[in-house]
From TrEMBL:
Domain DNA mismatch repair protein S5: from-to ranges: 209-327
One Pfam entry name: DNA_mis_repair
GO function term, MF aspect, one: mismatched DNA binding
UniProt key word rRNA processing: no
Native organism: Pedobacter psychrodurus
Domain MutL C-terminal dimerisation: 426-569
Name by which UniProt lists this protein: DNA mismatch repair protein MutL
Role, per record: This protein is involved in the repair of mismatches in DNA. It is required for dam-dependent methyl-directed DNA mismatch repair. May act as a 'molecular matchmaker', a protein that promotes the formation of a stable complex between two or more DNA-binding proteins in an ATP-dependent manner without itself being part of a final effector complex.
Length: 611
């Protein structure tokens, strides 16, 4: 029997490694940006076409490479950052494995131009499918310029698994934002299909956050800073009032490397305990500086997971530091026992000499039982000069009410047949539930979940027939989103219009809302808040429930526009709500799958009263 174990060819081995390192265009963007940071660049430009499928280009002004290094960087496990095993526990660079460039070259067409600052001429290398097709001297600026074309051109199965351009672009924006946040002293720019998405000047961390997410974030940030013998912590947290329904704006960095850590996230969330609802998540951008020998970053190919030597202490420091910032900047409610604030605004400070005691004037000659003439004269001398005149006439009519016939009151125990002929009456309980009498007992309906179900099914119909009616706003509202949400909104624009929104693009990262769905009623609607909640709810449904785009949009708008618990309803409103609920395809269950209707039978009531 012949031997069956053999070495894989380099091309096959590189493609297997590429499956771990380069899962989508965003993975290549991350690796190339980190290489530029490690090269000491302070100016990095990213150019993307077709969401990275056609072109990913990185231009930096880093240290550049020699001719030999330029050729060697595409070999597997070739790196300048690690020389021996002990170096893995003293790593402060972003990359160290030496696999990224070889993996990228194995599944794309790569052209690299590089020159060191001390050299007069640079090197140009072209590689296609891990094979070098050209290498020649070239005149180029100091630094490195890498162009990746036709990603996954030789692995069509991997290319077919890529998502749509808006989805892939959002992943690229995520990676770009993480790198840009970690290095605010570096200039970054991002262009997609000829349009400038970001132009981030050098600055501090707060300026970088504002440039990335929008000017309105300037008032949302609260600084956090803590220095201990274990870690140094710095960064910003968001005020509870601006918490969102998704986790998209939560960033941890350890030694400037972005990480995902549910354990530390729990520490921050517990610091916000009792300040946020259960389904809201605060903004935070937190940086941990720690001795590299006390962590292990070589855990996952994407290097987003880290193991700590003293995890519990870091958790305690993180929680206490965030709590102290919340208290220091008066985010949490406080009690001042030295002053009763309830009456402070009602007291006007005046000088003692300006205080005039009140005086009382009266007419000692006034007689309420006197004749009309005398009373008139009495009132004429009154200081207030009243025009009213007392009259003693018709006083006897006061007792006429006693002579009226007594109207017999209707008993609350009226004949049930009479009640059945009248329109069914509902009662609202605590402005949250609608209660009605049925033959077997009582029926209790949750008004908010009922309205959500009605709107959800109505919006699904609009998405199918594309005929959602719009109610024009008196004053159109402009909405500025961060780059990621703007890309998402653009991809959903046709479906959003089908729901009844009249919305269009209006410049960079800006939309104009000129109308909202008529199904939302005639109540005062904040178009900006409603649209932002629609986007947030859609992202939450996509992340948590993996619903289709159509269901996610309908669910999000229904949840955000339904009447809330605590809303008082009139009898006609309750009748309409119940009628529309029972006209739904699934009236018994809410959008979240919870029961809308509960019944309490007479037998259950009897048991409560021990009958």
């Amino acid at each position: 029997m012949t031997d069956i174990i053999h070495l894989l060819p380099d091309a096959v081995a590189n493609q297997i490694a590429a499956g771990e390192v380069v899962q989508r265009p965003a993975s290549a963007v991350k690796e190339l940006l980190e290489n530029s940071i490690d090269a000491g660049a302070d100016k990095i430009q990213l150019v993307v076409k077709d969401a990275g499928k056609a072109l990913i280009q990185i231009i930096d002004n880093g240290c550049g490479m020699s001719v030999t290094d330029a050729r060697m960087c595409f070999e597997r496990h070739a790196t300048s950052k690690v020389k021996k095993a002990e170096d893995l526990f003293a790593i402060r660079t972003m990359g160290f494995r030496g696999e990224a460039m070889a993996s990228i070259a194995a599944i794309s067409q790569v052209e690299m131009k590089t020159r060191r600052h001390e050299d007069e001429i640079g090197t140009c290398i072209s590689i296609e499918g891990a094979q070098v097709t050209n290498q020649e001297p070239v005149a180029t600026s100091p630094g490195t310029q890498i162009s990746i074309k036709n990603l996954f051109f030789n692995t069509p199965a991997r290319r077919n698994f890529l998502k749509s351009n808006p989805v892939e672009m959002r992943h690229i924006l995520d990676e770009f934002q993480r790198i840009a946040l970690a290095h605010p002293a570096v200039f970054f720019s991002l262009h997609h299909d000829g349009t400038e998405i970001f132009n981030l000047p050098k600055g501090n961390l707060k300026q970088r956050i504002v440039h990335l997410f929008g000017n309105n974030y300037n008032e949302r940030l609260v600084p956090v800073e803590e220095e201990t013998t274990i870690i140094n912590l710095k960064g910003y947290i968001g005020k509870p009032a601006f918490a969102k329904k998704t986790r998209g704006e939560q960033f941890f960095f350890v030694n400037n490397r972005f990480i995902k850590d549910p354990y530390l996230n729990h520490a921050v969330s517990s610091a916000f305990e009792d300040l946020l609802p259960d389904d809201s998540y605060p903004l935070y951008v937190l940086f941990i500086e720690i001795d590299p020998s006390k962590i292990d970053v070589n855990v996952h190919p994407t290097k987003t997971e880290i193991k700590y030597l003293d995890e519990k202490s870091i958790y305690a420091i993180m929680k206490s530091a965030v709590k102290r910032s919340i208290g220091r900047y008066n985010i949490s409610p406080t009690l001042d026992f030295d002053q009763e604030t309830g009456f402070s605004n009602m007291i006007t400070q005046k000088a003692v000499e300006d205080i005039v005691p009140p005086s009382i004037n009266f007419n000692p000659d006034f007689n309420p039982f006197a004749s009309d003439s005398s009373s008139t004269s009495g009132y004429a001398t009154s200081p207030r000069n009243y025009e009213a005149k007392p009259s003693a006439k018709n006083w006897g009519s006061l007792y006429e009410i006693t002579e009226q016939p007594i109207v017999e009151q209707t008993s609350i125990y009226a004949d049930e047949t009479v009640l059945e002929t009248k329109q069914k009456q509902y009662m609202q309980l605590h402005n949250r539930y609608i209660v009605s009498q049925i033959k077997s007992g009582l029926m209790v309906i949750d008004q908010q979940m009922a309205h959500e179900r009605i709107l959800y099914e109505r919006f699904l119909v609009h998405l199918d027939d594309r005929k959602g009616a719009s109610q024009q706003s008196l004053f159109p509202q402009t909405i500025t989103l961060n780059a990621n949400d703007f890309e998402l909104a653009k991809s959903l624009l046709d479906d959003i219009k089908s729901l009844g929104f009249d919305v269009r693009e209006f410049g960079k990262n800006t939309l104009v809302v000129e109308g909202v769905p008529v199904d939302l009623g005639s109540s005062n609607i904040n178009e900006t808040q409603l649209f932002e909640q629609l986007i947030e709810g859609f992202k939450n449904s996509q992340q948590e429930l993996k619903l289709s785009k159509r269901d996610s949009l309908a669910r999000s708008l229904a949840k955000n526009s339904a009447i809330k618990a605590g809303t008082s309803l009139g009898q006609e409103e309750m009748n309409t709500l119940i009628d529309e609920l029972f006209a739904c395809k699934t009236p018994n269950f809410s959008v979240s799958g919870k029961p809308i209707i509960q019944t309490i039978t007479l037998a259950e009531l009897d048991r409560k009263f021990e009958k």
